[in-house]
Amino acid sequence: MMKRMIKYLVEFEYDEENDQIDDVPIKGTRTLEDVYSKCNVAIAEPSCLQDAMNSEEWKTTMQEELNMIEKNATWKLVDKPTNKNVIGVKWVYKVKLNSHGSLNKYKARLVVKGHSQLAGIDFTETFAPVARFDTIRLLFAMVAQKGWLIYQLDVKSAFLNGELKEEIYVEQPDGYVKKE
Q1: Do the Cβ atoms of 61 and 106 come closer than 8 Å?
Q2: Quick one: pLDDT at residue 158?
């Protein structure tokens, strides 16, 4: 083992003449420059509204979210009621990446701070439209058996389409307060 190692080191001694010549690349390898160009080491997500407001990408994304809320007539602006509980809101920021690690999109969602609500006072039941794993497995089994095609669909604002019986009051998001 020792003789092989010594022979290996002798065969590949440093050669000053060929120092600037690259070896022939092995099939399937990429240059470091190519790897770095497709790799996002870290994309910082804002931790607060002030951080997000310093970036045009995040401001645009937040405005798109508010436009979708207004387009769907999710809420209407009213005076703050005196006898009702008003729920606060906050922004949640997420950077979405493609499967190979490059930037896909910035995602900003306006969410209510539901932890301030009291069961029986502010709401009587909860519901989350989530498919059970058994249902998805059954669907895939039927698709395989029947030879059907599957298409994926992402509804950007699906949660905005629910109908509520109760009146819910939320604060206006910071940075986007209207005085109508």
Answers
A1: yes
A2: 60
What's the burial of 88, exposed, middle or buried (CB within 10 Å: 0-12/13-18/19+)?
A: middle
DSSP 82: S
CA distance 134 to 140: 10
What size, in residues, is the chain? 180
Residue 63, pLDDT score = 92
Token reading at 180: 């109508």
Distance CA 35, CA 119 (A): 52
Interacting residues of 7 by C-beta distance below 8 A, sequence separation 6+ = none
Who contacts 166 (Cβ-Cβ below 8 Å, separation ≥6)?
123
Q: Is the Cβ–Cβ distance between 104 and 96 less than 8 Å?
A: yes
Say how far apart CA 60 and CA 71 lie, in whole Å. Answer: 16
Q: Quote helix, strand, coil % in the chain, to nearest 5.
A: 35, 15, 50
Q: What is the mean pLDDT of each run of 10 residues along the chain (180 residues)?
A: 48 55 65 64 80 92 89 84 86 84 85 75 69 90 94 67 76 79
90 DSSP β-pair partners: 111
What one-character DSSP code corresponds to residue 122?
Answer: T
As beta bridge partners, residue 103 has 97
- What are 24's two structure tokens? 């022939």
Q: What is the predicted pLDDT for the residue at 170?
A: 87
pTM of the model: 0.59
